[in-house]
Amino acid sequence: GLHDYLLLVFQAFADRVLVVLDTEDTKSTHSEYFAELQNTGNSLEFVLGTSESLRIQMYGEYLYDTIVLAASSYDSLANGITYSSFVKFVDEGKGNLIVLGHTDEGNLGRKLANSFGYDFYELGTRVYGSETEKLVKTSNITAPSAVFAKKGQVHLTGTGLYLRKNPKYSFPLLVGSSTSLAKNEFKNLKLPETGSEIVLVGATQTKNNARVVISGSFDVCSNQNFKQGSLNREFCFEVTKWALQRKAVLRYSDITHYKVSEPLPKGEKADLYTHRDQVYFSIDIEELKEGKWVPFESDIVYMEFVMLDPKLRNYLKNQGKTYSLEFKVPDMQGAYQFNVRYNQPGYTW
Q1: Mean pLDDT confidence for 140-157
Q2: Distance CA 52, CA 43 (A)
Q3: Reported confidence tier of residue 220, pLDDT bands at 50, 70, 90
Q4: Residue 180: φ, ψ to 5°
Q5: How far apart are CA 66 and CA 91, in angstroms?
Q6: Dihedral through CA 162, CA 163, CA 165, CA 166, nearest 10?
Q7: CA nearest to 176, candidates 151, 203, 194, 153
Q8: What is the pLDDT of residue 227?
């Protein structure tokens, strides 16, 4: 019946989310954020970082799809869980990770950030909105539109992040305003980074398509900063949706190729071509939006015809979800591959 179908769709996109806490207070200071996570079909489990019940895996199986680490003042957690446990969760378990950091970031969060393309500012360093104002109000949202496309002001307090030089898979989501500066309050020292050089929230896509979000602010997603006049609520919800792979996910199907003179049904492929053959190639690409797979629209998806190096590279034309191209086989013998590429920050297959 219809109800069974709706239930199946709902469950298909439900994540098992572990929230690791410094203190039980976080459940109330961030209650609106956690409520939204639950309202969108995720099952949340809250565990203190020092609790003996803290487990990430059991019998070699990971117990969660996503971990929110709101306990990063620690150097290590209960049951021998260290930063490398979380790195393995992402690398081996294809799990997603959200780290809510702060000015007193412990070694756990620091090493984690370091594993995913970022470094927290030195211990005791705070980002200021201006010379005397600790609250940062910034409209410098640098997230790719696939992650967050709205304009407005995000309010927060906390520390900053260094983005490694030439990071292949990392990109900042939020940076400081024109008046932002950073001070090490222990040393009474100003950092050379100012304004938009200060990364406040960053993201990383790993090679295995897992997603990581690292925030230098603990309160960016707190009830206090979800007030009217700020964009925090939308920013936190949309970035979290991205981290949980509810958006900007692509899938492909029905790869088809054949000689134009000898058409084949959709999804079938010819085995052999000779040079100068005219070839038709197509692939269906869909995007996950609001829990549904819909035709993906882009004019920068391209296909490479590769033998060691690409011998041909052309953009694909799309009609609905089907992207296609006709081309002539190069005048070189060998084993060729069809490679389809779409390399835009925020999207994963």
Answers
A1: 96
A2: 21
A3: very high
A4: -70, 145
A5: 13
A6: 180
A7: 194
A8: 86
What's residue 291's pLDDT? 85
Q: What is the largest CA-CA distance in the chain?
A: 75
**Mean pLDDT across 319-345:** 92
What confidence category does residue 10 fall into, taking pLDDT thresholds of 50, 70 and 90? Answer: very low
What are the CA-CA distances from residue 101 to residues 8, 73, 93, 195, 276 (Å)?
36, 8, 23, 20, 58
Which residue's entry shows tokens 């060998």? 334
Q: What is the C-alpha separation between 169 and 154, in angstroms, rounded?
A: 24
Q: What is the mean pLDDT of residues 25-38?
A: 96
Q: How far apart are CA 124 and CA 149, in angstroms?
A: 32
CB 12 within 8 A of CB 39: no
pLDDT band, very low/low/confident/very high, at 176 (cuts 50, 70, 90): very high
Higher pLDDT among residues 49 and 6, named by residue:
49
Contact 119, 160 (CB under 8 A): no
SS3 annotation, the chain: CHHHHHHHHHHHCCCEEEEEECCCCHHHHCHHHHHHHHHCCCEEEEEECCCCCCCCEECCEECCCEEEEECCCCCCCHHHCCHHHHHHHHHCCCCEEEEECCCCCCHHHHHHHHHCCEEECCCCEEEECCCCCCCEEECCECCCCCCCCCCCCEEECECCEEECCCCCCEEEEEECCCCCEEEECCCCEEEEEEHHHCEEEEEEECCCCCEEEEECCCHHHCHHHHCCCCCHHHHHHHHHHHHCCCCCEEEEEEEEEEECCCCCCCCCECCCCCCCCEEEEEEEEEEEECCEEEECCCCCCEEEEEECEEEEEEECEEECCEEEEEEECCCCCCCCEEEEECCCCCCEC
